[in-house]
Amino acid sequence: MSRKQITGMGPAPRTGVDDSGCPILHVDMDAFFASVELLERPELRGRPVIVGSPAGRGVVLSATYEARAQGVHSAMPMSRARRLCPRATIIPPSHGKYTEVSRGVMEIFHAVTPLVEPIASDEAFLDVAGAGRRLGSPSVIAAMIRAEVLERFGITCSVGIASSKFIAKLASKQCKPDGMLVVPADEVVAFLHPLPVSALWGVGERTEQSLVRLGIRTVGDLARVPSGTLQRELGQAVGGHLAALAWGRDERAVTAHVPDKSIGNEETFAVDVDDPEVIRRELLRLSERVAARMRKAGHVGRTVSVKLRRADFSTISRSRTLKEPTDVAQEIYATACELFQAADLDRVRLRLVGVRMEGLRPADSASRQLSLGERETGWREAEQAMDRAVRRFGPDAVLPASLVRGRLDEMEA
After folding, report:
1. Residues in CB range of 388: below 8 A, 6 or more apart
2. Alpha-helical regions (H) of 124-257
3. 125: which of 30, 215, 222, 271 lies 20 to 30 Å off by Cα?
4. 3-state secondary structure (DSSP) of residue 370
5. What torsion, rounded to 10 degrees, do the Cα atoms 340, 344, 347, 352 define?
6. Whole-angstrom Cα distance, residue 286 to residue 264?
7. Pick from 49, 27, 23, 54: nearest CA to 36
8. Residue 333 in contact with residue 249, Cβ under 8 Å?
């Protein structure tokens, strides 16, 4: 098999691999948040490092490969990560730094091609079919991107190069960290079939268990099962989807801009909370964050939803659609409080709350209709003034009075 893999520390790659039918790149930063933190903590290189709350009960945001070797992975509860890797250095997240580096990395991508589809702050698909005459083959372009990311930001990335988004993403995962892997168009099946069936998009833990019960452990096993059988066992949509992926069929194009479908924030409490006042204060804090993000993105939304997770990890979600779209925190907060009250969770211990706005649309396409005699509240103008103050003086420059009081209470405690 003539796949070509390049790694940062490995031997020189074989030459002559045909990447002419591989216009899709999947570029994925290696342990992104952790790598950015190590730029200021070089003494921690080569050691297990976890980015997450040192004292709280949140989840792992990122981990170095030394920590991953101990079983730590993103989205794992921090309590479990600390048990698995007790010698790890835990660094609180610095989201502003990650945003700045992410913006710079995306600028590198856009300098190559306008067909960039970000799927997270640290990864994106690129269609480089139109850049070949100017910059060279897909492999040359990928090598150039890797070198520029390293030179400008001091972090590494891995790149999968293939004929489709699905195979490119699998390839980038296979060559991590700090690698590059080409899967020629005529070798997709040979690359794909030895992989575990869990490698396929849409195969979660339950689906994998169902497939294993059928004796299906690899993608090749799955490919040999008739599509009708898969649809009967897994449902028509899932069965048909997996049958196509098992043969590498993925017709999705790289989409240069995917509009936000929702904007939300959530918070895990340091200890379980059953005080309604504390919960409402957190709902206000989250509503402020969501509204600020919406205004920055130029969105308004119509549907407010809240997420309420009990101490036993059971989760309740409630939502309500407003009469008019909004980007005003006070309106979002008022609805979130009503949804919390309707959930009848007074004095029920909660470990997490979240606020999300859905049904987004461009703010300049929505106009507010006032009823006869109704007066503007002035909240939108006040919050826009807060935005300006925050941009100039920092995130804590202006806060609602109840959040200031809450912070003072926490300091006194």
Report:
1. none
2. 132-135, 138-153, 165-174, 188-192, 205-213, 219-223, 227-234, 236-246
3. 222
4. coil
5. -40
6. 8
7. 49
8. no
Count the residues in the chain.
413
Residue appearing with tokens 């920590």: 67
Higher-pLDDT residue of 385, 33: 33
Does the bond joining 77 to the residue before it have cis omega, within 30 degrees of 0?
no
The three state secondary structure string of 256-286 is CCCCCCEEEEEEEEEEEECCHHHHHHHHHHH
Looking at residue 365, the DSSP 8-state letter turns out to be G
24 Cβ neighbours under 8 A, 6+ residues apart: 125, 126, 127, 128, 161, 162, 163, 164, 165, 167, 168, 254
Residues 6+ apart with CB under 8 A from 296: 387
Reference 319, options 262, 365, 361, 384; nearest CA is: 262
Phi, psi torsion values for 260, nearest 5 degrees: -60, 130
CB proximity list for 111: less than 8 A, separation 6 or greater:
none
Give the pLDDT of residue 95: 83
Report the SS3 class of residue 218: strand
User: Where does 46-196 show beta strands of DSSP type E?
Assistant: 49-51, 62-63, 89-91, 116-120, 123-127, 157-162, 179-182
Distance from the first to the final alpha carbon of the chain: 64
**d(C-alpha 103, C-alpha 29), whole Å:** 13
Contacts with 239 (C-beta within 8 Å, 6 or more apart), sequence order:
227, 229, 230, 231, 232, 233
Q: Exactly one of 37, 123, 331, 383 is catalytic; name it.
A: 123
Nearest to 329 by CA among 398, 261, 270: 398
| Residue range 302-346, pLDDT digits in tens | 999 999 999 888 889 999 999 889 999 999 999 999 999 999 887
CA distance 100 to 356: 24
Q: Tell me how far apart the alpha carbons of residues 321 and 299 are, in angstroms, rounded to a whole number.
A: 16
Give the pTM.
0.69
Angstrom distance (rounded) from CA 102 to CA 257: 16
Whether 251 is catalytic: no
